[in-house]
Input
Amino acid sequence: MVNFMPEIPLSSIDRLLRKHLPSGTRIEKGALELMRNYLEEMAEIISRNSAEILRHMNRKTLSKKELELVLMKIKERYS
Output
């Protein structure tokens, strides 16, 4: 993984996790940072795959349909 400044605020990760955790659950900062790193890494993988499709099609605009294709491909690869 490339070293860079995190893009997603920990508060956003905290809100996402709390939607599905029991009320009153505490989350360690390290757990939030791990989740943020994972989500940012997945976003990077999605971006790279999207760029590959756009280069192949010689286009500059990523459509919803193309992004769905990328996500489906990634889901198959990682499941």
